[in-house]
Amino acid sequence: MKILKIEDLSISFGGLKAVDRVSFEVEENSIYGLIGPNGAGKTTIFNCISRFYTPDEGKVLFTSKTGEEINLLDYRVEEVIGKGLARTFQNVELFKMMTVLDNITVGLHREMKGNILFEGFKLPMIKREEEKAKNKAREVMKFLGIDGIENQPAAAQPYGIQKLIELARALVSEPKVIILDEPAAGMNGSETKELAKLITKIRDHYKTTILLVEHDMGLVMDICERICAINFGKKIAEGTPKEIQDNIAVQEAYLGKGDEEDA
């Protein structure tokens, strides 16, 4: 079953066509890669899917937690996570002065019951909801191997741990699709190999679908079942890792012609 369908997605910035009628489909419970040189528009596509940007044209069709196919473009950015889609970012986005545990439970904010009056009086229901969220966060931390640092500030953690904290925040909402934007950035070879194992483990354990943007082609080719390649905002190829490796247009795109930084 196709859980995510991108149809003719287009967006321009100041007359520059950053994404030009890109379409692809992602199978449920798969690991799908989106690749391209710097400036190809990969992160821009992610930002449209997760509603940080509103495209000029196209559809983002998604099978929500309720099993209904919806167009994510009909929803606000803060509503997307409730539909079953979560993401991480190229640059780690954490509340640095909050504890690790509090950073992760932010991912459950929309699911917690109550209102500002209940919270102000710290009624038993609110305490139960908070404890439930913390227990769920602790479970994800243990799964990722970062338990034991719950009460430490996020800013005090090494970069690699901060990336795992951000990943935990996305996972805690039990998304149907999780978007990973360059998760291997800043990692060495051995760390990247461990990350590859972890991404596959996440897919299998949480029965979720992974949509991945990554410059490390070794990682992409190792774990993705299908890959979409784009260049200058246009789709140039789609297929298995072997088909992408053998594609002439993809090979030419990666020759290195001084492309600009990714949009």
Q: How would you sum up this structure in a few lines?
A:
This protein has 263 residues and is α/β, with parallel strands linked by helices. It has helices spanning 42-49, 77-83, 100-105, 116-121, 124-144, 159-171, 189-206, 217-223, 241-246, 248-253; strands spanning 2-13, 16-27, 31-35, 57-63, 69-71, 85-87, 177-181, 209-213, 226-231, 234-239. The protein folds into 2 domains: 1-84 and 175-263, P-loop containing nucleotide triphosphate hydrolases (Rossmann fold, 3-Layer(aba) Sandwich); 94-173, no CATH class.
Strand content: 15-25%
Q: For the terminal residues, how far apart are their CA atoms?
A: 30 Å
Subunit organisation of the chains? single chain
Q: Could you give me the name of the CATH homologous superfamily of the largest domain? A: P-loop containing nucleotide triphosphate hydrolases
β-strand number: 10
Please describe the biggest sheet, giving its number of strands, its sense, and whether it closes into a barrel.
6 strands, mixed
Q: Which stretches of 5+ consecutive residues score pLDDT under 50?
A: 114-119, 257-263
The shape, in one word, is globular
Number of helices: 10
Mean pLDDT: 89
Round the Cα radius of gyration to an integer and report it.
19 Å
**Which architecture of the largest domain would the CATH scheme give at its second level?**
3-Layer(aba) Sandwich
Number of discrete domains = 2
Structural class: alpha/beta
Task: Give the helices and strands as they follow along the chain.
Answer: EEEHEEHEHHHHEHEHEEHH
Strand arrangement within the widest β-sheet reads 6-7-8-3-9-10
At CATH level 3, the topology of the largest domain is: Rossmann fold
Give the helix proportion (percent range).
Answer: 25-40%
Regarding CATH, which class of the largest domain?
A: Alpha Beta
